[in-house]
Task: inverse folding
């Protein structure tokens, strides 16, 4: 009987020891639960600042371990299409986000769980529809000139067609994010309406002999300005700081017809096991505190209307209602329908 009691006690003590060692789902440090892994697909710039302002505070608040997958819009979206990724949160420019939504690759968000959406500028609240994620930042697409080499004032998109700019300009390639914006302003120069294909190609064919390069990378554009190959080009204001550093005489111009809005969105990937946590993260990114911190570190222009910056902090950013609410937006559904035809025709008739 004593042996039976001793054996039973030994079994119970071993069970207790195993439970203590495993801790259920608890990490070794301090008996806390192991952090939930949240996988984020993003571009990979300003990683140190984003860790400081966005990732690490969220990790501490919600016991999360953030893992990032880095790449451009196309490569990262293709990984989601192929199902070769465990991504929870997906950052894409608005045009690519629309493709992902139409292909059923995104979860529909519950806006009640993301109350900071209501603090955003209207254009940022639902760039790809009410079911999908907001824009966490906005930039503008306008014009840059080398003020030392430009003889007449540049005020309009149509000024690029002036004779003085022949063999001195660059334009975006049709395949990059700003390509559709070029198609829109070219359509207006060609006498058409929004995104009028025939009018756009007519105008681009007129300017084509004087285009030094159709650029795909901002670094190429900066280098062409710095080396004196070009004196004018459409540019995203996000890259103007680099241009100004390389060429102090560079000047950014908002055309009288208006600059175009470029918006980067944040969404949840279809099938994510962490949907509610992902919604908390989106809300966190949209908060006044994070938006201000990222803006002051020159990472992103804020879409939260409550973000406050001094004039010095706002310099070079797309900031304030008077700027953001006057930006032009494109009909992304129309762009999506026409893009493959534009690219095919571009390859045959322009490049």
Result:
């Amino acid at each position: 009987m004593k042996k039976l009691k001793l054996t039973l006690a030994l079994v119970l003590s071993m069970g207790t020891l195993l439970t203590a060692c495993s801790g259920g789902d608890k990490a070794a440090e301090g008996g806390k639960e192991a952090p939930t892994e949240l996988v984020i697909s993003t571009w990979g710039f300003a990683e140190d600042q984003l860790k400081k302002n966005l990732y690490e505070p969220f990790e501490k608040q919600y016991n999360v371990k953030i893992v990032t997958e880095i790449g451009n819009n196309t490569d990262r979206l293709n990984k989601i299409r192929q199902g070769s990724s465990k991504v929870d949160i997906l950052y894409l420019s608005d045009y690519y986000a629309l493709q992902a939504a139409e292909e059923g690759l995104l979860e529909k968000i519950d806006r009640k769980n993301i109350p900071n959406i209501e603090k955003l500028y209207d254009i940022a609240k639902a760039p790809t529809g009410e079911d999908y994620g907001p824009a966490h930042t906005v930039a503008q697409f306008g014009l840059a000139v080398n003020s030392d080499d430009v003889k007449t004032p540049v005020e309009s998109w149509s000024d690029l067609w002036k004779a003085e700019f022949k063999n001195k300009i660059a334009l975006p390639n049709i395949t990059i994010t700003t390509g559709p914006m070029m198609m829109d302003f070219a359509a207006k120069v060609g006498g058409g309406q929004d995104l009028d294909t025939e009018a756009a190609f007519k105008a681009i064919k007129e300017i084509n002999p004087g285009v030094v390069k159709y650029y795909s990378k901002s670094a190429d554009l900066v280098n062409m300005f710095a080396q004196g190959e070009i004196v004018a080009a459409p540019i995203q204001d996000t890259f103007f700081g680099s241009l100004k550093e390389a060429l102090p005489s560079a000047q950014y111009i908002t055309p009288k017809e208006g600059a175009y809005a470029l918006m980067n969105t944040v969404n949840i990937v279809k099938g994510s096991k962490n949907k509610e946590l992902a919604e908390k993260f989106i809300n966190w990114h949209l908060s006044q505190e994070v938006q201000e911190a990222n803006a002051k570190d020159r990472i992103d222009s804020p879409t939260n209307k409550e973000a406050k910056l001094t004039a010095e902090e706002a310099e070079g950013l797309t900031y304030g209602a008077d700027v953001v609410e006057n930006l032009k937006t494109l009909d992304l559904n129309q762009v999506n329908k026409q893009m493959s035809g534009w690219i095919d025709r571009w390859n045959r008739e322009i490049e």
Q: What stands out?
A: The radius of gyration is 25 Å. Residues 1-29 have pLDDT under 50 and may be disordered.
